[in-house]
Design goal:
With 295 residues, this protein is an alpha/beta fold. The protein contains 10 helices and 12 strands.
Length: 295
Amino acid sequence: MSDRWLITGAGGMLGQDLLAALAQDGTPAAGLDRSALDVTGEEAVRAALADHRPAVVVNCAAWTAVDDAEAKEDQALAVNGTGPQVLAEACRDSGAVLLQVSTDYVFAGDADRPYPEDAPVAPRSAYGRTKLAGERAVLRTLPDRGHVVRTAWLYGAGGANFVRTMIKLEGIKDTLDVVDDQRGQPTWTADLADRLVRLGKGALAGTAPAGVYHATSSGATTWFGLTREIFRLLGADPDRVRPTTSEAFVRPAPRPAYSVLGHERWAAAGIEPIRDWREALGEAFPALLAAERGR
């Protein structure tokens, strides 16, 4: 087996940043987007692994339309549950390590302190249930080589996300009403990609135990607090952002009120947790601004 990596869902925001991080690191990698590989197809997945012979597979492929999943849970489960199962079985047979990207939505979202990696799961949405099915498939099939990496509140230059939307709205709205009763950790996809690279290398070296890791930024804020920081970075008046409640934006899938994750497991792998969300957002902002405004 080579030292090559294979990234599924490579056309997405995280997949793009992960391929960039691997290229910068000098690690050979292949990326397959949704059109190139359907992760639910056993024959296609096994053919991809036979072709690329990866030492590490990172599954970035996912059904991420949280609200649509409420009415289409079977379709979401195929991608988020069956897909990881198929990948895990192929990795088991080929000897590859599998990093499965998961979500804070596996928790109930009603805590008052950061969720540790071993906290009880209790998803309240179809999306959360389907992602939990994927986690369990990976951990059950690959007890020694399966790594579940939960993340949340992702943003990056390579796709649509909350930060880019707020940059756009600042230019066309006098004021913005933003939810202030959901708390989480805004996380830059480039920072997550860096930790995935380190984790995969640690897994190959035998220094990163299999199991669950939480990869979100340190610190915490609300969507309202995040938007105020975005306005500040734009040189706009943060007071144009006004707090509101989740009741003002009722959606098909319930949103967790508390999505703050603890990061204790990284110590077992000798890897530092991700830095504070404000520092990361400041570094990411020029690229986000350029991507949103077409510069």
